[in-house]
């Protein structure tokens, strides 16, 4: 009896040791990689998901497990990547430029030397939507209204401020400015708690679908004086937002004039080459499958994904681009 107990205990102990060691081995092999995105009704969040889906298929080969985090947007992502809190982040091309140069949100911190570019993704436009009952037909009409200019940490807040300034409005004095996260704005327009909202996002997005499909009618407002913006800021480009994506919007025009930027995928110089290489390789080697994961990627080409970047390429990404002749 005693013998049997001793034997069982020994066996159990051995089993525990065995399980323990395999878990440790498995853990040692798996590197967890986190991608910072944006609000869940934007395009960054599904983009993080698309990258993770492609990369996680090769989990056994690379030992990389990608996870996605919903965040406050571009500025938050860049800062979190540089602080080592996130491994990768999606950020607007204008925000990448500003971080590299040490301007705008990085004026006090100076140039962010560790920021690295991996690739760029879809185009984003800067848009203003307003409730039809608020009688807003241009940025000038925002005077005295309740307007979301975006949360601190978002990329689009500065785009809103630039568009307002180009049209002679000061967000601090001319209207009631809200600093809400994008995900909250469509619901608040529908609840008549705000009249208008800015956002910078790829299309189609859940955000505008939500904002334009409620009982309060909502329309896109053209952004004027884009020439002034283009003359002043090197990172903006003329753009148009296609209304076919949002049949619920109260617009009759086919497209609304505005300006835009690109979504980009960034990391830190401190992230190991082999991880950046693996992610770059999987996205590019599976480019056609990747493109199918969101309609905002329709116009993407491999070459276009190497443009719109201001930070130096991460060596892990560069290794892949050289291998396949993209660089
Ligand atoms: N461009 C937005 C920002 O950085 C996020 C858009 C999105 O989540 O798709 O604030």
| Extended strand count | 10
Distance between the termini: 73 Å
**Helix and strand run:** HEHHEHEHEEHEHEHEHEEHHH
Give the radius of gyration.
23 Å
Low-confidence stretches: 15-27
By DSSP (H or I, 4+ residues per run), the number of helices equals 12
CATH superfamily of the largest domain: Periplasmic binding protein-like II
Percent range of helical residues: 25-40%
Q: What top-tier CATH class of the largest domain fits best?
A: Alpha Beta
Mean pLDDT comes to: 93
What percentage of the residues does DSSP assign to strands (E)? 15-25%
* CATH architecture descriptor name of the largest domain: 3-Layer(aba) Sandwich
Estimate the global geometry from the Cα principal axes: globular
**Which fold name is given in CATH as the topology of the largest domain?**
D-Maltodextrin-Binding Protein, domain 2
- Which ligands appear in the coordinates? glutamic acid
